[in-house]
Amino acid sequence: MGDTKKYWIGFSRIKGIGAIRLQSLLQAFGDIETAWNAPSAALRVAGLGSKTIQSLIKGREQVDLDYEVARIEEEGFHILTWEDDEYPIRLREIGTAPPVIYIWGEFKPSDRWSIAVVGTRRATYYGQAVTRDLVGALAANGVTVISGLARGIDAIAHQTALESGGRTIAVLGSGLDNIYPPEHRRLAESISKQGALISDYPLGTKPE
Predict the structure, then answer these.
(1) What's the distance, CA 2 to chain centroid?
(2) Pairing of β 168-171 and β 144-147
(3) In this structure, how many other beta carbons lie within 10 angstroms of the beta carbon of residue 180?
(4) Beta partners for residue 103, in sequence order
(5) What is the mean pLDDT of residues 95-104?
(6) Euclidean distance between CA atoms 191 and 195, whole angstroms
(7) Residue 146 forms beta bridges with which residues?
(8) Which residues fall within 8 angstroms of residue 37, CB to CB, at 6 or more apart?
């Protein structure tokens, strides 16, 4: 993992600094490492408020960046940032695209051809049947299926894509080390081998 990656990881752990504020810091300081190490006065000039500056300073004292990098690698995960050419093109088009995405598995150029399939956690028999028919046809024809790993329609969409020999991507609302619901752990492992699980939340983040 590149030397600057750890600073991106560090910022992902600072409350109050999202895509817009980080972009402002990069414009002010020129690069991610300088922004991370900037003194309070310079951060204030860059537009951060007192509360956010305090949060950043506290984070710099508490977050062991090298440990965070090692932890990600040991888990078999990796990250992509705005600086990476591999960062998903369609995600990059969003005005507030996440500066860092944590990944378990891999993206492929073909994933640009994708469709999101999401639905209720309490799916009817009809809903399950329609999902299987629709996703099965899409996956068999090279369309990557994206969903949220939730119970119900989401899980059926992922599983059907896998069974059809296609690719699927799960977008999580927690850290990659906190698979939710827990009974989908085996499904998550299968997705990581035939697609990817992604999250913009750092490791250790639990679902709310």
Answers:
(1) 18
(2) parallel
(3) 19
(4) 78, 198
(5) 94
(6) 5
(7) 116, 169
(8) 60
